[in-house]
TrEMBL record:
Name assigned to this protein: Relaxase/mobilization nuclease domain-containing protein
Keywords: Plasmid
Organism classification: Bacteria, Bacillati, Actinomycetota, Actinomycetes, Bifidobacteriales
Region called Disordered, residue ranges: 454-477
Domain MobA/VirD2-like nuclease span(s) in chain numbering: 19-157
Compositional bias annotation for Basic and acidic residues: 454-467
Pfam families: Relaxase
Length: 477
């Protein structure tokens, strides 16, 4: 059986060609073929020929340019099928030959670096005989899958039966994905988990992930992971709490961590192994030295991830010992990390899956109404627990809950460290996964309490301001 997916390349066609033709994935490009004449094994030249062909074609309807540079077809074969890379490549060639009938250029590359053999095909959107663009429609995708299924059946491979799909049920691509257990998110999680144990720094992790088809982008507080095969991008929060920057660094270092951040202008000196940072508020009389592998660089901002259970040494301008303090004690000088309450809550917000846009909007509106009701209930129960029964002010309650969140995050880090240990049994892995999920839920529930208290305090502030304004107007009469 072969699962077929189709996407579009709208930017950086040359990078896409280089990716599918990667010699490490295609037996030194032995498993790369094309119907472009005289181009040999040169992915950059393939991309150039595609682009040259499109330059001679009109802009399309209403004068608007068509941004599709190539259609990206992925044909994945069942690992249970007894198929060789050469057979998979030949099936891909036959699929494209029958589909295009020689009227479109294509490049096909068979990848053998994963647990399942799969073909990557770049298909030019230009019809050679008509000198115009081919529009990828639902009927086209159905035709590709029909041909692929027939070729697989002829080769003695399994074929996925056409499911009976209700109008607003899951689409056939979704069922292909579900039946084969193929999830882009899960695939990214798996590649991250497999890579973190092989590296000693965040920069090394980015390089290793790139080699297995995952691009890592640092955007402010967030990491974004991009799947090279599909072009799909996911923020760390969409993959789960265990895949944000803090917990990625925990997995790399195998220890619980604290974070300090600083501007590049605070760097006193650096070499290939270490970076020395001026300690804020000391008039550049104290500095701390951090190994480079503990740094994450985000533009002009640098974040250093330091062991929570270790002491940090401060030195003077000449590098002589000044004092030794716990890692948490650095927050006397550096700004403590902000708790991203909205992100913690968002991780547990209900996801709505439906193919019907109107139904999706209606369900999302209902979900938001439920969320508003839950917010009111949380606020009432939190006020009763902390303010009425506990005798705290709103600020004291927020501080108390925030401290609990930090403690829970430390517990979560410990669980993540434990889950990275080698030699764990299936039962131990399942138990740790369950504990991680439970810990994430506790953190999300606590974050809701903080937001409820902050909302109440903001509401009281607005009320007080309104009252003061009214009194001011009254006095002025």
């Amino acid at each position: 059986m072969a699962v077929v997916k189709v996407g579009q390349v709208k930017k950086t066609l040359s990078k896409a060609m280089e990716y599918i033709c990667n010699p490490e994935k295609t037996r030194d490009m032995e498993l790369v073929s094309t119907n472009l004449d005289g181009e040999g094994k040169d992915p950059l030249r393939y991309a150039q020929r595609f682009m040259e062909q499109q330059q001679d074609v009109g802009t399309g309807r209403n004068g608007r340019g068509d941004s599709v540079l190539a259609h990206h077809v992925i044909q994945s074969f069942d690992p249970d099928d007894d198929i060789t890379p050469e057979q998979a490549h030949q099936i891909g060639m036959r699929l494209m030959t029958e589909l295009t009938d020689g009227d479109q250029y294509f490049v096909i590359a068979t990848h053998v670096d994963r647990h399942h053999i799969h073909n990557h095909i770049m298909l030019s959107p230009i019809l050679i005989s008509q000198d115009k663009r081919m529009r990828m429609q639902k009927t086209t995708l159905h035709k590709i899958r029909t041909i692929s299924d027939r070729l697989c059946k002829d080769a003695g491979l399994h074929v996925l039966k056409e499911p009976k799909v209700k109008r607003y049920g899951k689409s056939r691509p979704d069922l292909y994905t579900q039946l084969k257990g193929e999830s882009v998110k899960e695939s990214i999680r798996l590649r991250i988990d497999q890579s973190v144990g092989r590296v000693e720094s965040f920069d090394q992790l980015k390089q290793v992930l790139r080699s297995v088809g995952v691009f890592t982008h640092v955007r402010g507080k967030y990491l974004t992971f991009e799947d090279a095969e599909t072009g799909m991008k996911f923020r760390d929060s969409k993959l789960g709490e265990a895949y944000d920057e803090m917990n990625i660094m925990v997995k790399i270092g195998q220890e619980s961590l604290e974070c300090i951040s600083f501007n590049k202008s605070m760097i006193a000196k650096q070499d290939s192994k270490n970076v020395s940072i001026w300690v804020p508020g000391t008039r550049r009389k104290k500095q701390i030295t951090v190994p480079r592998e503990r740094l994450v660089i985000d533009g002009q901002t640098v974040r250093a991830w330091l062991p929570m259970d270790s002491d940090q040494v401060l030195s003077d301008r000449q590098g002589r010992f000044v004092q030794q303090i716990p890692t948490e004690g650095l927050y006397e000088y550096f700004t403590p990390p902000n708790l991203n309450i909205d992100k913690l809550i968002r991780n547990s917000f209900p996801q709505v899956y439906t193919a019907n846009p109107k139904q999706r909007r209606r369900l999302m509106a209902q979900a938001f109404k439920v969320e508003e009701v839950n917010s009111v209930v949380t606020q009432i129960s939190t006020v009763r627990e902390y303010l009425l029964e506990g005798g705290m002010t709103s600020t004291q309650a927020v501080d108390a809950i925030s401290q609990t969140i930090r403690e829970r995050q430390a517990d979560l880090q410990s669980l993540i460290v434990a889950s990275c240990e080698e030699g764990l049994t299936v039962e131990q892995v399942e138990s740790l996964d369950a504990q991680i999920s439970s810990s994430e839920k506790q953190i999300s529930d606590l974050a809701r309490q903080v937001r409820a208290l902050r909302g109440r305090e903001q509401q009281r502030t607005r009320t007080d301001d309104t009252t003061a304004q009214r009194l001011g107007k009254h006095r002025g009469r």
